[in-house]
Design brief:
- This protein has a 5-stranded antiparallel beta sheet with strand order 1-2-4-5-3, sandwiched between helices. It has a 5-stranded antiparallel beta sheet with strand order 6-7-9-10-8, with helices on both faces. A two-stranded antiparallel ribbon has the order 11-12.
- The longest helix is centred in the middle third of the chain and has 30 residues.
- It contains 17 helices and 12 strands.
- Helix 6 crosses helix 9, helix 13 packs across helix 15 and helix 16 packs antiparallel against helix 17.
- The relative contact order is 0.09.
- By secondary structure, the protein is an alpha+beta fold.
- The N and C termini lie far apart (72 Å).
């Protein structure tokens, strides 16, 4: 790649032969870069060449829409009298997206990203033709963020397809797209998408600034970008939201957020991100308001169970037995009579075993992955109880914890909850319920210190914003009552809808 960058900013030469010599030296012996020299014009009076990457460009489109029209065209008799690139762009080639390039850097980037490059003898300007034709995955259902009711489309690995999915949902000229390239070797394309007139200038400028500071050889996935732009590195909690659902991104854009779409990945970043955002599912908005509120409350209860159930069991059975009814205490003591490990070690063994089964189920082929994880959990749990290594009560607690973890709609929050669970288990084993309270206090204080592009992470609860409680972590008001966009997000236009709101007839 060093050869590619030594003279990449040099302008193109008038001589086609000298240009091709420099290009061949840069690409070396790479067999996938095709350089096709030909004579343009009916009489073959103009030497020309087209360059493209085999596998990235559509060879049929090049043949039918570029080479054939050029070879049959009436070209000027004197080379240099009329700019040949401009004439080809305006009158000859059939490609819709055509750009003029004048330097080697733009030329290399053009054919390495799927375009084809057209050069003429006697012209210092080349043409970049949009002839991309690689195989791409079709739009499919989301693999990780499913809903019962709602759109079944998910982003793909193709940047332009993803932008098109957003355009289908937001048919407004205020939706703006800015392109940028990151990665010195990979030259990864990304797009910054926002709603002009809604997004706050300070948030948008901060996104541009942080992306401009990225200077690395390779970017392969949006997770690489996320690590660079998040404000707090030493935290379990995500401060950049990611999703593979176009409807979620579209909803975030109209609220004043900024989307970052990276070519090559179906996961789109959305900033600023708030804590409550990771507990809200698209299902909440596609169901009635009361159903959505019940689901959110259930999800919040599941969050606390997933984080605290093993720690609370350890604390109560080890330090606070008086909190249990006598019959339940006797039952737990009888079930643990033959267990050789302390309750903390028992819980640790079971949690680690389940995490191993979860990872094994994810990494194995889909056809057997789920079967292995389910059967493995049943067989190992039953065998461990029969062998007297763990108590039945601990199996129930760990199973309940695992189930409630899956209730959390986004894995970027579920993983931190799983990690916090182990820390709280250790505090419970040392200090009982007091240790759990200290741990939770630290977590809440830590969350209060987090920011996402300048926005407090716990908004609208810290600081408390009454107007935003209509769409909070446990309650969702009817959509027709949400007249304003979230005040938690800094945006330039707070009006979402205008009264009068719809009412049933006869109830005016």
């Amino acid at each position: 790649m060093r050869r590619l960058t030594t003279q990449q900013r040099a302008p193109l030469d008038h001589s086609l032969h000298r240009n091709l010599t420099v290009i061949r030296k840069a690409i070396g012996t790479s067999g996938d870069i095709i350089i096709r020299e030909f004579q343009a014009g009916r009489s073959g009076e103009v030497p020309a060449a087209i360059i493209y990457a085999d596998g990235l460009a559509d060879a049929n489109a090049i043949q039918s829409m570029v080479l054939r029209p050029l070879m049959l065209a009436d070209m000027p008799l004197g080379i240099g009298q009329i700019p040949l690139a401009s004439r080809a762009k305006e009158h000859i080639v059939y490609i819709g997206d055509v750009e003029e390039i004048t330097d080697l850097e733009s030329l290399y980037k053009a054919f390495l990203t799927g375009n084809s490059v057209l050069l003429f003898e006697g012209d210092q300007t080349a043409l970049s033709l949009d002839t991309k034709g690689w195989k791409e995955r079709s739009v499919d259902e989301p693999s990780t963020q499913n809903v019962i009711r709602g759109p079944k489309e998910a982003f793909t690995e193709t940047l332009k397809t993803n932008i098109g999915l957003l355009r289908r949902r937001i048919k407004s000229t205020t939706m703006q797209v800015e392109y940028k390239t990151v990665g010195r070797l990979t030259q990864t394309d990304l797009a910054i998408v926002y709603m002009d007139g809604i997004v706050a200038d300070e948030v948008l400028n901060e996104v541009r600034h942080r992306l401009s500071l990225i200077d690395i050889d390779a970017i392969f996935e949006s997770g690489n970008i996320e690590e660079f732009i998040q404000e707090e590195q030493l935290t379990y909690f995500p401060t950049v939201f990611n999703t593979e659902r176009p409807d979620v991104v579209a909803a975030g854009l109209v609220e004043g957020r900024v989307a970052i779409i990276v070519d090559g990945t179906p996961f789109v970043l959305l900033v600023p991100a708030l804590f409550i955002q990771f507990l809200q599912s698209p299902d909440d908005y596609y169901q009635r308001a009361d159903i959505g509120s019940i689901l959110r409350t259930l999800r919040l209860v599941a969050l606390f169970i997933a984080m605290l159930a093993p720690a609370a069991f350890i604390a109560i059975t080890s330090f606070h037995q008086e909190m249990l009814p006598s019959s339940l205490l006797i039952s737990i003591a009888a079930s643990r009579s033959g267990v050789p490990f302390p309750v903390f070690v028992e819980a640790l063994i079971m949690e680690i075993t389940f995490e191993l089964l979860r990872e094994a189920g994810l990494r194995m082929p889909k056809a057997i992955g789920q079967a292995i994880s389910i059967v493995g959990a049943l067989v190992l749990g039953e065998a461990a109880v029969q062998a007297g290594l763990v108590s039945p009560g601990m199996v129930i607690i760990v199973s309940l914890t695992a189930i409630t973890t899956f209730v959390i709609p986004y894995s970027s929050l579920a993983v931190p909850i799983r990690l916090l669970r182990f820390s709280l288990m250790g505090l419970a084993a040392m200090f009982g319920l007091y240790g759990i309270f200290v741990g939770l206090t630290y977590v809440i204080l830590h969350l209060n210190t987090l920011r996402s592009f300048g926005v407090p992470y716990l908004k609208p609860y810290a600081p408390f914003i009454m107007a935003d409680q209509k769409d909070g972590v446990w309650f969702r008001a009817p959509i027709w009552k949400m007249l304003k966009r979230p005040l938690s997000l800094v945006n330039r236009n707070q009006t979402r809808q205008r009264p009068p709101v719809p009412k049933p007839s006869g109830k005016e």
